[in-house]
Amino acid sequence: MANLKKLTLLHSNDMHGDFLAEHVDENLVGGVSMLSGYINKVRQEEKNVIYAIAGDMFRGSIIDSEYQGISTIEIMNLLGPDIVTLGNHEVDYGVAHLLFLEKCAEFPIINANLHIKTNNARLFEPCHIIQMDGMKILFIGILTEAVLAQCKTDGLIGTFVDVQDAAEEIGKICNTYNAIDIDFTVLLTHIGFEEDKKLASLLDPAWGVDVIIGGHSHTFLTEPAVVNGIPIVQAGTGTDQIGRFDIMIDTDNNCIDSYVWRPVPITAENCPRDPALEEVIGTYKSRTDEKYGKIITKFVRQLTHPTRIRETELGDLFSDVMMDALGVDIFLLGSGSIRNEQLGPVVTKGDLNECFPYDDAVHVVYVTGAQLKHMIMRMLRDEVFEGAHCEFYQLSRGLLVEYDQATHSYLRFEYQGEPIDEGMVFTLGLQHFHYLNMKDSFDITLDELRKNHKDRIVSTSCTQVIEEALQAGQHQDAKGEGRLILHLV
User: Fold this and answer.
1) How far apart are CA 135 and CA 5, in angstroms?
2) Contact 358, 462 (CB under 8 A)
3) Statement: the pTM of the whole predicted model exceeds 0.85
4) Strands of 418-419's sheet in order across
């Protein structure tokens, strides 16, 4: 008869500073107060409970941005996760600041493959063992280069390049720690759902990985994906839900005997509130409300950004603002820079900063018409529309691209109503993040573009440009159609 023990494993990912509950159809949903209430309730009801976060605690709210993550760490300390891994947005405030925030955290933060290039020294503990009820539970934290492009701002920081390298590192850690009778192994990843499935397929069953808890792609599941015998889960984004595993562990054979997984909605019906957490959040909110409550503008109507891989109303508005204000021929605005699905009609400073939190510098590069066609073709590659978490761009006014996926060709590629002159050189505005990742995003190098003309910085703050332009005029509107016409298979 196998020796079975129950483990309840709760998990969140991509919380992005989502601290406050919201009203949805008259019901109160989400927020860390009710999330904390649910976690505390489960900890009282069950014997062995672990709460894990799979990256991206930071970025997305005014409270987080204003205090550069310090507020988030204080709130997370009260929420009390047992283990956290890094996401790509944990480095948004800089690696040095992240190391400071780690010192403020009262919970372990793990990552197996973020390292200093010169000597390969790891910046964080690669894994962590939680012991409870006679069990040893091993957690390993994983990122890959594809989701950590921001670290390219710091030339000394690197990570393993792809999931193959990550799999090898996982094997090395498992082989090292399995000798001390690990009962259960969890990968906490922040690489995206599709990459998690690739990673699972590369893992040797002898390494003993039991579960993958992921993040980054904001995937909401109703049941786990099982690859190579390993359940893979994710809990969407924010604090509107939490993932819950109820697992029977066979401690004789160090494996899962059985499990049930489900997403649990964080609602007033099944989640009590946490008054202590609400008090801390209220203190931060009162300070930020005073600063960010100022009304900037009023749109004609609410403008939307429902997806990052299509032309959108907010994408049109912001790319035009940047083009007009900075005097460039074309501006390609990163779709992922727009974090909310809607904005307005009344827009406060806080609304704008929450919707567009990335205060990058802006670079002007010089591209030929032929190079621009090549860059946009890279953006429109098939994997983008198959769910891969790739960079996508909103086009400024004057550029019209009609693309046929079946033939991988342009039906139209026009500038100012005329077919684009492939030999003509255009000034192109890009945010700092995308300027740094030119090869990944556009399959072209800065050296190639510098043959046309030397690039330069034309603004040190995207947010200030957008805020100033919106403040200067009321009743802005945008169509969200007619610039990027896609015929998808």
Assistant:
1) 8
2) yes
3) no
4) 418-419, 409-415, 399-404, 484-487
Domain covering 4-285 assigned CATH 3.60.21.10 in the classification: yes
Domain locations along the chain: 4-285, 293-487
387: left (phi over 0), alpha (psi -120 to 50) or beta: left
Tell me how many degrees the CA angle 344-73-307 measures, rounded to the nearest 5. 35
d(CA 290, CA 23): 22
Q: For domain 293-487, which CATH number applies: 1.50.10.10, 3.90.780.10, 3.90.1200.10, 3.30.470.30?
A: 3.90.780.10
DSSP string across 238-288: TTSEEEEEEEEEETTTTEEEEEEEEEEE-BTTT----HHHHHHHHHHHHHH
pLDDT, averaged in runs of 10, over the chain (489 residues): 90 87 69 93 96 86 80 90 89 79 92 74 88 95 67 50 80 85 94 92 94 93 96 93 96 92 92 90 84 89 95 97 96 94 93 88 97 97 86 97 97 97 97 91 96 95 92 85 95
CA dist list (Å): 213 to 37, 117, 187, 299: 22, 28, 6, 40
Residue 140 to residue 399: CA distance in whole angstroms: 46
Other beta carbons within 10 Å of 153? 13
For residue 33, give the amino acid letter: S
Beta-bridge partners for 84:
53, 109
Are the C-beta atoms of residues 129 and 174 closer than 8 Å to each other? Answer: no
